Amino acid sequence: MDSRNPPGPPDGPLQLQGRNDTARPSRSWRSILTHAGTALVSLLVGVLIGLTGNPNADKASPSATVTTTATATQTAAASNQPSAGKVPSDGIPGDGTYLVGSDIKPGTYRSEGPQGGLAPSCYWARLSSTSGEAKDIIANDATSGQTTVTITATDKAFTTTGCKAWKKSG
Question: What is the largest CA-CA distance in the chain?
Fold first, then answer.
């Protein structure tokens, strides 16, 4: 052995004895199929996660608040008639925008929370106007449980979406 050359692999390509080169393509196909199968399973898992989603995701989205308010306002504007005959004096029956003083009375109201089903949260807003603009929101929240709100005489309207009936408690 020559001390000038460090030990290591021999020069030239490494030849394996007794190995058949025809086995290499089947290993490549197996590798491709394994990777394709893994990609397919990952895609299916991603789709399932996207379909189930995070039920709290809309809670932080400002656009969801604006959209909900605009939709509720359009419903009230389309009727152009107060719903005072439909609203019981001790509560608010459910989804809609209600004018304070004519449709509902100022006071403290409580809801047991979301209706369930497609409504994962109970959204409410106290409004200074029914224009549907975000600047008209005095206070709002989207809760997943029991909630209480105090509507003042200076509020113009109250809107609610996805909540069980509101009972007047004060």
Answer: 107
